[in-house]
Structures
1.
Amino acid sequence: MRQLRLVVEAEDFEQALAFYRDVLGMTEQEAYDGDEGARVVILDAGRATLELSNPAQVRFIDRVEAEGQRSDRLRVALEVDDSAAATADLVEAGAELIAEPRETPWRSVNARLRGPAGLQLTLFQELDG
């Protein structure tokens, strides 16, 4: 395995690109245009991991992170330097706030939002390390 790439269809492509590239700060690695208006931009999101959780763990995370509000089947977790500041920036850029930043039992500060292209996001700031 060399790379994990999450492919997202964005109905409002320009809004999604501005949000993830310009507000979140993901750098553009590649971009391609094709026939009939086809367009793709590949953004660098740092190191990728695949977190597999059983239903009991998901319920626990949802209680801790979002007052029990059920997370989507797929949720994108992004590590940031400052969860509170990043959350404020993303809300200002149009994200829907689901849960305010809060410290978790696993020593991170997590917030939950819904961003462009319908992605549910967890922003997390590691407190140790």
2.
Amino acid sequence: MQPISLARRLGLVAVALGVFGAPSAWADRLDDIKARGTLICATLNSSEPLGYQDPVSRKTVGFDVDTCAAIAQRLGVTLDLRSVSVEARIAELSLGRVDLIAAALGYTKERAQQIAFSDAHYQVPIKLIVKTDSTLNALADFKGKKISANKGSTPELYARRRTEAEVVTFQDPPAAFLALQQGKVDGLALAAPSAVRFVNETGGKFRFAAEALAFEATALGVKKDEPALLAAVNKALADMEAAGEIDALWNKWYGPNTKFNLPREKKLTPISSFE
């Protein structure tokens, strides 16, 4: 066999580039998802009713799980559900281990530098839970006190930003609430959909402080520089909103016939409104 000349080699390289394109042209996550036939979506697994383990089926269920399934259906693929912790959400997405994050992901400008956010499909207040006999109500009352929060969560961020309390972090809401029950902290910072369960199920021993930490826009997370996937997710959310599906999912998990009884106060809102 005769050796291939330099000119011939260069020609083959040019043909290859013409067929396959530069890496930035063909490395498209949406194409990968459709070729694979699955959407890898990560949710929490210990935050009822967003994502938690059903005691009977032992499967992870919840509002975020159903949202992932609806997005996958509209993309024409099946759902590959993964569990993720609060502190690992952004890392798992940035490393490309998952396609989409639906895990109580509150929008912040700091996070938007690391990942891309879909439009906000709901907004909730971040509350402070205290003991019923506590005198703490205004944010200023927490100066010099201790507040527990999920490590890496938006409630942790706002507790540090808006109070002069010492913030003590835990791996999940039950552990953070246990610290409050045991008197190790004076308050617990948590988004209302998760917080209301602890208030409602403790026989009047706990209540919300009068002043909320913030009003949080919650969205889905996509890896940076994946405009096609982000656009497809936003299109799916818009279709779901128009069909009343997001409202239906919210009522299923949070509505008047649940122990949470929380209204969905805000409709789908462009994430640009919060930038």
